[in-house]
Prior knowledge:
Blueprint: E1 3-7, H1 12-25, E2 31-35, E3 55-56, E4 59-60, E5 66-67, E6 73-74, H2 82-88, E7 92-95, H3 101-116, E8 120-126, H4 143-152, E9 160-164, H5 174-178, E10 184-187, H6 190-193, H7 197-200, H8 206-215, E11 220-224, E12 229-233, E13 239-243, H9 245-251, H10 253-257, H11 264-275, H12 279-291, H13 300-316, E14 321-322, H14 324-330, H15 338-348, E15 353-354, E16 357-359, H16 362-366
Parallel strand pairs: 1-2, 1-8, 2-7, 8-9, 11-14
Antiparallel strand pairs: 3-6, 4-5, 9-13, 10-13, 11-12, 14-16, 15-16
Helix pairs in contact: 1-8, 3-4, 14-15
Amino acid sequence: xxxxxxxxxxxxxxxxxxxxxxxxxxxxxxxxxxxxxxxxxxxxxxxxxxxxxxxxxxxxxxxxxxxxxxxxxxxxxxxxxxxxxxxxxxxxxxxxxxxxxxxxxxxxxxxxxxxxxxxxxxxxxxxxxxxxxxxxxxxxxxxxxxxxxxxxxxxxxxxxxxxxxxxxxxxxxxxxxxxxxxxxxxxxxxxxxxxxxxxxxxxxxxxxxxxxxxxxxxxxxxxxxxxxxxxxxxxxxxxxxxxxxxxxxxxxxxxxxxxxxxxxxxxxxxxxxxxxxxxxxxxxxxxxxxxxxxxxxxxxxxxxxxxxxxxxxxxxxxxxxxxxxxxxxxxxxxxxxxxxxxxxxxxxxxxxxxxxxxxxxxxxxxxx
Length: 368
């Protein structure tokens, strides 16, 4: 028995797909998770998604689909979380190759469906930005989701669209996402998080980290990203809802526009026209900026002093939690030092670690 789960936006959606499999399908045979190799710049300094030619050690699945085993390696300077995911999870991670636009992703899906004959196919998005029209001012990364949505709508097989953690990606207001959701499929619990608990210790996805935290019962307001966006952590956080696939396509203007694209560049052009930008352009600009930044020395004493100031200010804004990525950005440190910050803080104040988030209220509760 094989389940096929398409991680709509790559990155943390692939980790959430493993949670989904554990929650809905239990101890069945492993899933095949079809996902982009598209990570944050702190993992992969090369903008945009990685292609099969960016790896060594991939394995052939079908004519157009390759899997990323634990032995695979991205070719420097590229980076990828997928080989480590493959090493720590029992699932097969198949690579979405978007270089030839939606048409190529559609073909990859059709080949996989024919090869695997899966019992079910789920298209999973964490947060709900796959339901965006394209003109929302808070929308930041519509292209990856639009490509997978457009492809899934053209495959001759039943595909269920699932949105987990509505609003947790901070791309659409939670009130707006709520009105677009269909039936409740599942509410994640701490038990569902167990299969990916070790991954959450190192994976940089903020949205999936908050999804896991809410499943473990964490509630409050979490500040994320370099802009310090506040995300409510509520009882909606760990929920998974079904959404009609055709309804999502009719709403998503970018997905409709790229249905017949044959190159990634063409899809990017549509994104610039409809959304006003391409997220790959943002990555290109940020990568160029980061390249010119001087290397910062990691000084634990300075970090702890700066952290105390940040925490006091964040609490005054009503923030209860934050991510280690946000801490690195707020303290003016490069993303490459995220792990060093995390290790230092957990060692210094272990009660504040609400895995995988940092709790800003624990010190207050511990005060006499």
